[in-house]
Specification:
By secondary structure, the chain is of the alpha+beta class. It has three domains: 326 residues, no CATH class; 234 residues, Pyruvate Kinase, Chain: A, domain 1; 111 residues, no CATH class. Helices cover 53% and strands 11% of the residues. The strands form four sheets. Strands 8, 9, 10, 11, 12, 13, 14 and 15 form an eight-stranded mixed beta sheet that branches. Strands 6-5-7-17-16 form a five-stranded mixed beta sheet, with helices on both faces. It has a two-stranded antiparallel ribbon with strand order 1-2. Strand 3 and strand 4 form a beta hairpin. Helix 1 runs parallel beside helix 8 and helix 26 packs across helix 28. It is globular.
């Protein structure tokens, strides 16, 4: 009778575990779909023509590929006509390296899937993203829970799921309207590791065949999904090592069925797996030791500034910042990390297949912030495991809770408290809100480009919206979020940072006619990067521009002008540039005629009659004041030194206030974008919707 009651209690506990697991999934969905209300409240900004806008730059790329499939443009192996002009041609080669980006399947399989689903359901890619991404985002919690429950560590699996799904970095990379790899980048490796574990845990040949076949199929999908053969190679390597370990590294102990299992796993992966070791070597060398392997072309371009230093997700985090991105509590983060190490010590064999990805998570401490999403599940696993460790190992060693029933109840009670404590600690995930990377007004302007420019036109702008222009304007771009590391980004920045419109035109002319291919050839001839730039500005490479090129300034570039000016003013001898500065206060009011007070400038008062900025500790002179009423530009000179102040009327009748140092004020970016002051010999203003966008056609010659 007592045994029956005990079995009933065990079954009841299992039921509660599954109910708590359901809570994990519901919580993961809630913190993502909770944003819907905010999006609906801002529908005029977050939707365009009835469709939600994407919340991540790469989402524009994957959505654009679907559009290409619908229009019959997408062919694997064919050159992508929208990217990297003018190097998107078969002639764009240097030595053994090709510059032309091509359509592929590995790494862009997400677009193939969403294209198929769109054709099947009749829903647009945008609405499929809206509905499906939150569900895909919670999927890694499934293998995490069942893996750890199989090890009789259910609270580790539950805690791992909660911490992972709510982790700031993972939430930010899998939130509403984020069409990207990351929604399954944890699911695939954890599922494969779990299938490997099940393969070795089972004793029947039939089940082994099932698990190894499923693992092989999942590996193929993982490669197609993410396109990183090094990660698949590491997983296969752990399988082989474990197999050898079980056979005590004696090939003589292998039977026919063992070779069959290995063949089922490895042979379907041969088409990409051969590249895995080399890619793994490069990744370890770069991410762990900071020694980047450069191609011959990259060595030629090495004098140009490193654009990646401006990208936040690639920056190294402090110890505190790591836990701030992996979990909402530093205390939980530290305890969970310690628990994770202990977990791998006591369950080394069972979790052997997850070790490489735990290592990737630990890279957050020495490499980029993006790896924090790989750390968060292990922090959660560690926290949950500490409960099991306490009641199953430590307390029995101290002769406490020796009775199994009391110990099980105490473990269950404590684990449940921890579970809900983690949900409470993750409440910040509820207030975190996903927002589009682009607003509807700018998409409308991109739509204008689509219908009012020749189809062979090219967009000259900063890289962030490169993919968006390809999607919404259906026009090629000079560079984008997948090619911003080349000297083209420097050249775009240079064209924005120079003060002479003729020099700006010359930079564009060189880029359009020579491209990266021509630049590489010049460098190969022994010319220095600085000398080439000087020759470009001097007009030695001037050629007519045969393709319509449109310079597009967008409102987001004002806040990004710091880095744009840094790269555009880069000194090749000093190896540094000057950060740009455009101060654009938002909380200002007119307190008297020609007197403006700005609360967000510490209540500074701008006297536009006398040319003085009054601040708490004194005054700052105004060098020049510009007033643009939407039609006409008026200027007033005050002093030889000081700030440049600009008051500009927008299309909505509002006014924008801008404060700039003289060096940044005297740039084409400021003059052509904010002031609409341009030289008609080189540029033609074709569209003015300041501050959303201002568009110029570059004169052919």
């Amino acid at each position: 009778m007592l045994e029956e009651v005990w079995v009933l209690r065990i079954n009841s506990a299992n039921l509660v575990y599954y109910l708590l697991f359901l809570v994990v999934l519901v919580f993961g969905l809630y913190i993502r779909f909770d944003d819907v209300q905010f999006w609906k409240a801002n529908e005029h900004l977050f939707f365009y023509k009835g469709e939600p806008l994407y919340s991540e730059y790469d989402s524009f790329f994957f959505a654009r590929l679907v559009k290409d499939m619908e229009e019959g443009l997408y062919r694997p192996g064919k050159i992508d006509p929208f990217r990297f002009f003018p190097d998107n041609s078969s002639q764009a080669k240097f030595d053994k390296e090709e510059f032309a980006p091509k359509y592929g399947i590995s790494g862009t399989f997400i677009s193939n899937i969403f294209y198929f689903l769109s054709q099947l359901t009749g829903l647009s890619v945008a609405w499929l993203t809206w509905y499906l991404i939150p569900f895909l985002a919670i999927s890694p919690a499934i293998p995490v829970f069942f893996y750890l429950k199989k090890l009789n560590l259910p609270f580790a699996g539950l805690a791992g799921g909660i911490v992972m799904l709510a982790a700031p970095m993972y939430l930010g990379r899998t939130n509403l309207m984020r069409l990207d790899h990351d929604v399954l980048n944890l699911t695939f490796p954890i599922l494969i590791a779990f299938l490997f574990y099940l393969f070795f845990a089972t004793q029947t040949q039939r089940k082994k065949l099932i698990f190894v076949s499923l693992a092989s199929l999942t590996l193929i999908f993982y490669q197609l999904w993410y396109g990183h053969p090094n990660l698949c190679f590491v997983l296969v390597l752990t399988f082989i090592l474990y197999y050898l370990w079980e056979k005590r590294f004696k090939l003589s102990s292998f039977k026919k069925e063992d070779y069959l299992y290995l063949a089922i796993l490895i042979l379907p992966q041969v088409w990409y797996l051969y590249a895995g070791p080399y890619h793994l070597y490069l990744q370890v060398k770069t991410l762990v030791f900071g020694l980047k392997e450069q191609t011959s072309v990259e060595k030629l371009f090495s004098d140009f500034p490193n654009i990646f230093q401006s990208i936040s997700e690639l920056q190294r985090l402090s110890f505190e910042e790591v836990f701030a991105t992996a979990t909402y509590s530093k205390a939980f983060g530290v305890a969970g990390l310690i628990g994770a190490f202990v977990l791998f010590i006591f369950h080394f064999r069972s979790l052997f297949f997850l070790i490489p990805f735990f290592g990737i998570g630990l890279l957050t401490f020495v490499s980029g912030a993006r790896f924090a999403m790989y750390l968060s599940p292990f922090v959660g696993l560690g926290l949950g495991y500490l409960v099991h460790l306490l009641f199953e190992k430590l307390l029995p060693m101290m002769n406490l809770f020796e009775e199994e029933r009391k110990r099980s109840f105490a473990l269950f009670f404590t684990g449940t408290i921890l579970f809900f404590a983690l949900i409470f600690a993750s409440r910040g995930a509820v207030s975190a809100v996903s927002t589009p990377k682009i607003h509807s007004f700018l998409v409308k302007d991109m739509d204008w480009i689509k219908h009012n420019t020749p189809k062979n036109s090219v967009i000259w702008t900063w890289w962030d919206y490169g993919y968006a222009f390809q999607l919404y304007a259906r026009r090629a771009t000079i560079h984008d979020g997948g090619s911003q590391g080349s000297p083209k980004t420097y050249l775009v920045a240079k064209s924005f940072a120079v003060s002479n419109p003729e020099q700006g035109w010359r930079v564009i002319s060189f880029s359009a006619n020579y491209g990266l291919t021509g630049l590489a050839k010049l460098l190969k001839e022994g010319k220095k990067a600085s000398a080439i730039v000087e020759d470009i500005l001097a007009g030695k490479f001037d050629m007519p521009i045969n393709t319509p090129i449109y310079v597009v300034f967008t409102d987001d570039l004002i806040s990004k002008f710091g880095w744009i000016h840094y790269f555009g003013s880069y000194d090749f001898n000093k190896k540094e540039g000057t950060f740009g500065q455009i101060v654009s206060p938002q909380d200002c009011r007119m307190i008297a005629p020609n007197v403006i007070q700005c609360a967000d400038l510490d209540n500074a008062i701008l006297d536009l009659t006398n040319g003085i900025i009054n601040i708490k500790n004194g005054t700052i002179p105004i060098k020049d004041f510009y007033f643009h009423d939407g039609k006409e530009l008026k200027a007033k000179h005050f002093f030889e030194n000081g700030y440049v102040v600009e008051l500009v009327r927008t299309r909505e009748g509002k006014f924008g206030l801008f404060l700039l140092p003289p060096q940044q004020a005297d740039t084409l970016f400021n003059r052509m974008f904010i002031l609409r002051q341009y030289d008609p010999r080189y540029f033609e203003l074709v569209y003015d919707n300041f501050p959303t966008s201002v568009i110029y056609l570059v004169k052919p010659e």
